[in-house]
Amino acid sequence: MTGNNFKQVFSFNVEYAPQYTIKKFQSERTKLQVVQILSKSSPMVEGYFAVGTEIFNDSGIPHTLEHLIFTGSKKYPYKSILDKAANLSMSSTNAWTATDQTVYTLSTAGWLGFKNVLPVYLDCLFNPTLSNEAFVTEVYHVDPVSLQDKGVVYSEMEAIENQSWFVKDLAYKRLAHQNGSGYRSETGGLTENLRSLTIEEIRDYHEKNYNSENICLIITGNVPTDELLSIINEFDDQLPVATNDKVRPFVDTTTSELLKPRFNDQIIEKTCQFPELDLSQGELGLYWVTSEYTDCLNDLLLNILMEYMTDGSLAILQKSFVECDDPLANDVSYQTEDFVRSVISINYSGVPTEKLQLLKDKTLDLLKQHKVDLVKIKQTLESYKLSYLSKLERNGADILSNSVITNFLYDKDVNGETLINGYKTLKDFDDAAKLTSDQWTDLLNKWLVQNSPYVVLAEPSADLYEQSKKEKETRLHERSKTFTDEYKDQLAEKIRLADEVNNKAVPDALLENFKVQDPAKAIDFIETTSVPCFGSKPTGPEAEAEKVQKLVGLQKAQTLPFSVHLEQFDSNFVEINLMVSSEVIKDEDNLPLFWLFCDAFTMPMKYGNEIIDYETVVSSLKDDTLSFGMQRHVVSKYYPDIIKFKVKCKAENYCKGVEWIKKAIYNSVFDEHRVNVLLDNFLSSIVESHRDGMNMLKCYMKDIFYEKRSLEKSSNILTNEELLQNIKEDIENGLFKGKILPKLEEFRNDIIKGLDQAHVLILGDISKLGHDAFYNSWVQNFKGIHPLNKFPELPDVKEHFTEFRKGFGEKSFILTTPGSDSSYLSIHANCNIDYTHPDYPVIKLLLGYLQATEGPFWTSIRGLGLAYGAWAFNYVDVHDITFMVYRAADLIKSYEAAETIIKDLATGKVTFDKNLINGAIALYLKEVAESNKSFVNSGYGKYVKTYGLMKDPSFNQKLTEKLINIDNKDLIRCANTYLLPIFDKNTGSAFIACHPTKGDDFKEYFQKRGYTVELRELKEDDEDYDESDESDESEQDDD
């Protein structure tokens, strides 16, 4: 085996997920660790490069260093080198910084691209340039004109620093961790400290911490071990020899000594405040320091105990404080942080501010008195195990790599004993199943009662809101008085120089090394076997298709009550989706009742004359399924006017899964008390959701784009919060049976009558069922339905556009959101083409070019610290072309920069960069591979592509060929035809969400550009709030 410096430390197969083998190697020369997670279950090769990053202040050095790693290295001294190399190699890079780690990621379609980029990435990691110029734009600077604080990191932290969850978590760190503990620090950096941070501090931190003994390289996917080690070995030869005197972060420092459980009766409590005008709701967190990282079994038991306490309608904390009369919160969840010791927390949101203390007291009392129900916790244990196995199937690389990272940081040595014990087998689950009720109760008492918690109560504060606003105004005022013209010129020169140095061109000859020859053939795509509706021949791997054809007995398809489509692949599970168009709801005024009907699975159910209470229903559901619920959309953003009933279960429970969908539709009983409790909880959750500026913007646009016949508007809380509030009042006034229940039954009856137009999508493994079970479960549960004997049409949301949405132009809209400090922009124009239009490939390439990492938007917007990100999208299914800015530090300059970029390309003033063009083509292939990174994703994608978007099976191959042959004339033409209209007041419209202090400035700017501007202010007593975007349905899911 090549890789002479590296010796294998261990290797084991994950017995319950045999597609994964985990191997660990360590360099005898430098102590660098390499962990390989071998698998052929995805076309993606993923890299996770982990660094233990301990710091004892809030300077944000670990986070700022994370950003600067991407700005060049000693061997490759070009700010854009890493990402341009990645683009050409069908790769993308990213990173995160947490309390105890910084992890750099490399995600690639196939091994060939990955191995191209790996040496560059390693050089950036170990030998970064860390230039003054990169610091100016990436971390922090002051704008010489507006005198505002700018920088990518600065704008990122400014956006979250005053959010309630951030304030609460920071208060916990201060409360629980003493000086001398790395866990006390805010590694992202507080804005106050970012303003005074220097590049010298960052360089010093890198020198001390980014060494081979403190870095672990984790690579997942179908990768040849010898070749991987050979590449890393060549780099390892250039690193300094390990000194063996390095201090392990968190383990060998005072941090580990200070993190201890507290077995006493002293609860340590703190009340903190976050700036907010709506004073009605706060948050509550209770935190316990528990067992050491190496105690795998105890860690599993505590996670199961937390699931038992918090997850689902029957969980004791949910039932006692959330889904109850006079609720004390709208949600409860738990979190586990795996440090030297595990820290577990129970977190409540949407707590009436005046009841925070009451909820804390009641929670602690309940924990003291509760005796664990053995039946329920065994059910929770089984659900938790199946959920874990399901996640491994769908995203095993992430699951296992995160476990490896924690093991690297905290195991007692490099031999991985804790990792092997915890992940090789399911023995810990078997041991957990043997516990008695008394043993579970003893566990609860030991870790959650005798071990005293830290408690944080987070309250909204209008005074703090005003204080925060005044501090910014004062800072700007002081700068306006003290910054001389000469100093402003110096600031401007510093930014100009930074822009010049940062945009130094990478030689074409160097970039040529990263192009993958014949890139489509370099990807090992996975494929499901498709069994289409009405007896068509299965498509997919030939042998598998023949087998499935025999299994399902295609001749029976004609007798089914629906069109049924199967995507077959090896799995322990099946996902069953019954979908019907919302067009079947005859009275559009009933569409907002979707929110109430979403709870059909968790209502009482009636069988004959007997009504089964909802607790029994939910308990049975948990026995038979992994997840269940209702959603909009077929998948993701596609076809939002679909109403979908979804169940995921073990493959052998397929028939039960089908039966549960039938029960939710036919047998659910809309019990007045249950509806009232769930509606009360839902309305309560609206208050905190409007603190998210980006979500508010999406909600605002939907309200303007769609008529109420579409669920995009009718399920939009910005539109219907008042209606749902009126329903709540009607219930309280005794009108449920006479007014509300008849409408719910009308909604149900419309769905039942429309089932002849329904279609069913099944994903997973039906190989153990046989064709009788596969078909008969539908025939038996859905009798009397007369199918169309053709594929039902998917509803076209374009049919419900408002008159304004059909045209765009002349108007722009601003929504001020007091709970969000950042600004968000989304500009829209019509783009009336479909996937067969000859300009579609040109637009695809053009947008990929513009928004590529280190492409035009990146260098001129993010690269100058104007915003955290800027992108452009062509939403073909709704004929929309969009430019958007996320977390803008300077929204107007971001807008103007994008407009200038597009005008310069459209007029030929700036020529297209051939390497960026090649990178955009390669990234398209990476996008295709990533959308098919698991069999489930692949199956959903094939279904939408074939039956919704009407793409032929060879669409991606043909599109790739077209992308390669596009010339600059086509790009220039399409930039003029499709992109310039976005910025034209006659054809484009801007939508903005921002802090109230910025609303008037933005309104004045767009008025000067010729728009009529509507400014809407959301105040603390505003009746209209936000919906959650894609996760707005009541699905209880495992993924």
From TrEMBL:
Any one GO molecular function term: metal ion binding
Segments forming domain Peptidase M16 C-terminal: 196-368
Residue ranges, annotated region (Disordered): 1017-1039
PANTHER family xrefs: METALLOPROTEASE, PUTATIVE (AFU_ORTHOLOGUE AFUA_4G07610)-RELATED, PRESEQUENCE PROTEASE
SUPFAM superfamilies, sorted: LuxS/MPP-like metallohydrolase
Stretches assigned to the Peptidase M16 N-terminal domain: 57-138
Composition-biased stretches (Acidic residues): 1020-1039
InterPro entries linked: Metalloenz_LuxS/M16, Pept_M16_N, Peptidase_M16_C
Family annotation (Pfam families): Peptidase_M16, Peptidase_M16_C
Protein name in the entry: Mitochondrial presequence protease
